[in-house]
Amino acid sequence: MKGNVIVGQSGGPTAVINASLAGVFKTAMERGYSKVYGMCNGIQGFIDEKYVDMADYIKNELDLELLKRTPSAFLGTCRYKLPEIHENKEMYERIFEILEKLEIEVFIYIGGNDSMDTIKKLSDYALLTGATQKFVGCPKTIDNDLAITDHTPGFGSAAKYIATSTKEIIRDALGFSYKKKNVTIMEIMGRNAGWLVGSAALAKQEDCDGPDLIYLPEVPFDIDKFVEKVENLLKEKDVVVACVSEGIKTAEGKYVCEFTSGSDSKDAFGHIQMTGTAAFLANLVHEKLGIKTRAVELSTLQRSAAHLASKIDVDEAFAVGGATVKAADEGSTGVMVVIDRVSDDPYQSATGVYDVHRIANGEKVVPREWINEEGDYVTEEFVDYVHPLIQGHYNPMMVAGLPRHLTMHQKSYKDSKKMINIQ
């Protein structure tokens, strides 16, 4: 019998992060590992010896399916930066003592850029000391900014939610347009990469013209020029909808959200709190043009709307979870599983592994050629890239009219007769 696997979740959650957790558990059991432990609140909780046996929560296929459909991080997450090995060797010694105590053979961390830094450091320490544990990263982030991989689990579902919400917000704004001009500014997540805000362009279909303006953080944002463009658009139409990334910044490098009072706090990685961009711009447009304005901040809905998850996204998230176990089982360590796009029409993908040192702390931004010359919209190449990732729908399990989730307070849900609308 093999030893044990431990898995943790880190950073911002996604609508499909638990599908990867389900993939880890199922594959580890199929490959003969004794137990799958879950770290509570990532590496930070693990250091405090907070962990659970996943078999206490996943007792049957129904529990597994519930987990795949549950948003947020089932195990709890954290934003914790491990120090460099030479800065705190004692911390690494403690981590590896706990790994030995739990008879861990495989350590899997589900996360984004900063989380891959944890895999890198732990695998480096193992190499340095001769420890035998395998360390594998499982990609996750709605921001889609991980290097090497074609895209990340979580992005497709967030893009689907953003495009859907954009269509609905445009429809709402048009309903109030009779003899009353109005401007709506949508704030969409994305610190330095514009993959999410660019996805709003998918709202443009036969029944919708899509947003009028889309601003990505890859291009410097000119506040005065923005107001001028909105003013010119209002000469031609009654409703203007602009989508802006929370991370847009001026040519001088100042985030627009820094013009508000909501950006003072920082996380462990030095990232400022992103909020208030749309509100600032909406107030400015109202002040300058005297037009009714509305700011819409999608906020955490972008990463928690499991009821609108893309089937492609859920299936790929589950697959990469399984692929992490497979990679470690076949001898890989210090790597991250990636998604390779095999074909666009029909869409097909496959998993692979790459050295985590090439991925950790990196950032993949939208290519400049996928943004129009004016810097206020994305190109067809961008839309063609995202479009396959939002396809299909993963129906929630409905109980009493609402989605059922798997939580640590509800270890197993056995009354399958109450489950409806399952596909």
Notes on the protein architecture:
The protein has 423 residues and is α/β, with parallel strands linked by helices. The chain has two domains: 4-141 and 308-362 and 395-417, Rossmann fold; 155-304, 3-Layer(aba) Sandwich (Rossmann fold). Helix content is 33%, strand content 17%. The chain has twelve helices and 13 strands. It has helices at 17-30, 42-47, 61-68, 89-101, 113-129, 155-175, 195-198, 223-234, 277-289, 301-304, 311-329, 380-386; strands at 4-9, 36-39, 51-53, 104-111, 134-139, 182-188, 213-215, 239-245, 292-297, 335-344, 347-355, 398-399, 402-403. Strands 3-2-1-4-5-10-11 form a seven-stranded mixed beta sheet, sandwiched between helices. It has a four-stranded parallel beta sheet with strand order 7-8-6-9, sandwiched between helices. A two-stranded antiparallel ribbon has the order 12-13. β1, α1 and β2 form a beta-alpha-beta unit. It is elongated. Residues 411-423 have low confidence and may be disordered.
Features:
four-stranded parallel beta sheet, 423 residues, Rossmann fold, alpha/beta, 12 helices
How much helix, percentage-wise, in residues?
A: 25-40%
- SS field, number of helical segments: 12
- Estimate what percentage of residues fall within beta strands: 15-25%
Give helix and strand order, one letter per element, not per position: EHEHEHHEHEHEHEHEHEHHEEHEE
**Record field, number of beta strands:** 13
Structural class: alpha/beta
Q: What's the alpha carbon Rg, rounded to whole Å?
A: 22 Å
Number of domains: 2
**Largest sheet entry:** 7 strands, mixed
Question: Could you name the CATH topology of the largest domain?
Answer: Rossmann fold
Reading off the top of the CATH hierarchy, the class of the largest domain is best stated as Alpha Beta
Strand order of the largest sheet: 3-2-1-4-5-10-11
